[in-house]
Specification:
Layout: E1 3-16, E2 19-27, E3 33-34, E4 36-41, H1 46-58, E5 65-76, E6 91-100, E7 112-118, H2 120-126, H3 130-145
Length: 167
Amino acid sequence: MPRAPFNVLVIAYRRVADAYEFAVFQRADGSMWQFIAGGGEGDEVPAAAARREAWEEAGISADLAWTALDSRASIPRTAFPNADWPSDVYVVPELCFAVDVGAAELRLSAEHDRFAWLDHAAARDRLTWDSNRVALWELTQRLSATSDTPPRRASGVRGPSCEEDAR
C-alpha cells in the first residue's frame, strides 16, 4: 500500500500517583529517542494512522482515551526517499495525537529496542526532535488546564475528537 503524504506522532502517557509519565522510545538502530511515529497508508486518515501505528509499535489499543493535539510540524520530503509522491510535495505534515494508556503494558516492535517512562522534564531532555518536545509541551499544558494544580498533578483530559480528520 502506498505511503500517504503525512506523518503521525503519538504520545503514550499515564498517570502514576500524582504525576504524569510519557513513554519515549529508542529506535532499534540507536539513532534517536522519539514518541511513536509513522506514516499513513493509502487513503487512511491521520487518526486511523495514529491508532494503527500505536498498535504496531507498542501494542496500544485503539479503544483507549485518544486526544488530537494542535501541534504540527513539517518534515522534508527527503526523509522519505522511497515515497512515491508527486514532485510538488516538498514537506510532509506531522500530525500529533496523545493516548492515555493507564495501566496497560506496552510491547515493543522491531522498530524500537527499548522505551522509558519519563516525567515531562526527563522526556523533554531525552527526545531527539523539537517537534516531539513541542507536542509534549502542548499535552502537558492540556493536562494541567483541567486541574487547579501544577501539571504534575493534573487529572485526565479529553481534547478534540480523533475521529475528526486533523488537517
